[in-house]
Specification:
The complex is a heterotrimer of chains A (285), B (251) and C (295).
Chain A (H helix, E strand, L loop, with lengths): L1 H29 L6 H18 L3 H24 L8 H22 L15 E3 L2 E3 L1 H23 L1 H11 L1 H6 L4 H26 L9 H13 L5 H21 L6 H15 L9
Helix pairs in contact in A: 1-5, 1-6, 1-8, 1-9, 1-10, 2-3, 2-4, 2-8, 3-8, 5-6, 5-8, 6-8, 9-10, 9-11, 10-11
Chain B lengths: L3 E10 L2 E11 L4 E5 L6 H8 L7 E6 L2 E2 L5 H6 L2 E3 L12 H9 L17 H13 L15 H13 L5 E5 L7 H16 L3 E5 L3 H7 L2 E6 L2 E6 L1 H6 L1 H14 L1
Parallel strand pairs in B: 3-8, 3-9, 6-7, 7-8
Antiparallel strand pairs in B: 1-2, 1-4, 4-5, 9-10
Helix pairs in contact in B: 3-4, 3-5
Chain C lengths: L3 H26 L7 H17 L5 H25 L2 H21 L18 H24 L1 H11 L1 H6 L4 H27 L9 H14 L4 H17 L7 H15 L10 H14 L7
Helix pairs in contact in C: 1-5, 1-8, 1-9, 1-10, 2-3, 2-4, 2-8, 3-4, 3-8, 5-6, 5-8, 6-8, 9-10
The chains are: A mainly alpha (285), B alpha/beta (251), C mainly alpha (295).
Chain lengths: 285, 251, 295
Amino acid sequence: MIWQQFANGLAIGSVYALIALGLTMVYGVLRILHIAHAGVYALGAYMGLLVFRFIPNFWLALGLTMVGCSLAGVIIQRYLYMPLLALPRIVPLIASIGLFIALEEIFRLIAGPYILSFPANPGLGSIQWGMVRITSNQLLVFLVTFSLLAILWFIMSRTKLGLAMQATCQDLETASVMGINTEKIIATNFLIGSALAGAAGVLVGVYFNSVYPTMGSIPAYKALAIIVLGGLGSIPGTVLGGLLIGLGETLLLGLTDIPFPRDALAFIIMILILMFRPYGLLGKE
Amino acid sequence: MVFLAVRSLTKDFYGLKALGGVHFSLEQGEILGIIGPNGAGKTTLFNIISGLLRPTEGEIHFQGVPIHHLKPHEIAMGGIARTFQIVRPFNNFTVLKNVLVAHGHRFYPGLLSLALPFEKENHLGQAREILARVGMEPYQGSLAKNLPLGFKKQLEIARALALEPSLLLLDEPMAGLQYEESERLAGLIRRLREEGISIILIEHNMQVVMDLCERIVVLDHGVKIAEGVPEEIRTNPQVIEAYIGREENVA
Amino acid sequence: MFGGYIITVSITIGIYIILAISLNIITGYAGQISLGHAAFWGIGAYCSALLATRLGLPFWIGLPLTIALTALIGSLLAIPCLRVREDFLAITTIGINFVVQAVFLYVPFFGGAMGIGGIVSPYSTSSFFWITLIFVILCIVLDRWLVRSWIGLALESLREDETAAAISGVDVVKFKVAAFAIGSGLTGLAGHLYAHFMTFISADDFGFPQSIVILSMIVFGGIGTLRGAILGAVILGVAPEIFRPVLDYRTLIYGGLLIFMMRFQPAGILGDQSLLPRMFRAVRQRGLEPMRTGG
């Protein structure tokens, strides 16, 4: 029983990690709380579904969605955030919330307020280990998330681009003095982060077989709690935070009868941790 | 009784020693200079005295009272005021309002006094007097952010004076100033000293330190390497080593 | 005197104005970003509703108790906010909103998903309008007094630079708590009026989207100014009524407006740096030019 919940929690947690990664990457370079990121995630689910309706191939839908969402991310960065960078933090934050609200409404107006089904699992089959059954949906989530994380890790630690991204994250001004094209790096952060969010949208759509306009609202705020746990801007911290929250929620609600909503749990953990570590789990002053 | 006594003050940052057992004292009415290469721990020392940082070890006594556990506002009320190396006036306030914030220190602890209006003629008058002392009265209506650097630094001193301090900590007041500006500021510091305010001055400009200070403490890598009157410091081999000899050692 | 519809909308706007003034004290004056203001409002409404339904306290006895309780709970909730700054503070307040709403929704004492109903208002709708109006005026007077007092100066100095304020004698912790206490005391007032006006409240009324609406009010109008808070509350209170004919697009317009305002008029309609007040000052200064002093 507990191992079954463990598998369920890990699947949810890895999707959380995928969503929160983009958020943390954006925060790392621009210090903006990019709430509209969850709009990109929902956009991903709709985009994937649209592609899938024309050509029913999961991998094609996933690939095209990631391309489409990365484009959307770069547009948001270019035309919404860049002009607001010098202003007080609350300005881009509210603009971002505005965009998120607008995106949800656009989805609702175009695709309707209904829950659409997204039966796109390519049929990986399921695995049975004693009592634990990993469903084919979970297998898909693990496979895709793990591959994307591996690619991200490779880019960040083994390529020149990744090193430049890390330097920019550390200190935007110094990086720019050192001759790094920071504008390009910032765009790359949005590009990669939004592609990951799009992938997460497709995965969640398929995992729960449902796509609907407000599917981004809970992840939007939960991802904030996760990146805070990870210490705003830290990629390993964020992956860890996502998995922890996913596991924590599932285990606590699956194994106890505490009548508490799973969506508030992430924030309770976050507030408790911030009381003792005001800069997050892996964060520094 | 020693006016200010700093005893074996130590500060660790994540295992790095910013200060390693610094020891010195200050007499009332004295101007003490603190010099040392970059990273010597001078600003850290000021941050600890003014309560922005807690020391890892060691004690600070001001007029016989231990103050190293107090919060910044308590230290400010107790009569120790400071300025910053990188100026931090309240940018969107007028010059006069900047001074009023510190002038309010006597009203902040109360409950009833807090509710009184601050734009009363007597408060404004007292704030203007302080501005007059630093020669900034004509600029009282300007926004702090629009002032040139020299005036921003003078404004910080005015704000500090509004606390009616008996000890003033000045963190590199001359840095970045034009010649005339720093002359003006040096004159101001001398006048404050004549008014009876004790001063600790961190400064890079050796000429200024030698001219203004009666005694000098030299820090290097968080440790006091010398102390004495300007003449002694000028000829102290260890000080010369710290300032000039560094490159030879590296090479 | 007016139609019932206008009175109802006016009372709602009055409550919005009180909420905007209270958030403006915390965020506009003291500079502490709060994205969870609806939670404080909800605490006020629930306190008021419980005092009225469980203890049967009359309106005017429940009022001071609600304000005091909400101010107390608000200052307690401010404790986690004291340790964190800026973005961490923003996220912490979002977290507080979600947690408080979850408590209302899941703890049976607070009526669960059913909320609390049966709150009896002793007044007719039109009397309620006058009562609300009087409280709005009182809040405006309170705000004017606050910004002119030493406490207001201390709060504004925190917004400008916390460290510089501390070394100038401002007790950072005390004044941050004071900002949250005054602000949430006022939300207690707003909650009391709301609970007795609606006679029924539920957790849904006090969610995070509602916090965004309140924050939008002060940002729209011009953060840190009283006139901005009032104007923002009026605009966002009237807008849903004006856009009723295009009901389906109302939220989209709201989102679009947020983006548009931030992009082109980030200091709000009446903020000190915005177009309208600058034009107004320019016109006025032309008349008063010889009297101008200083820089």
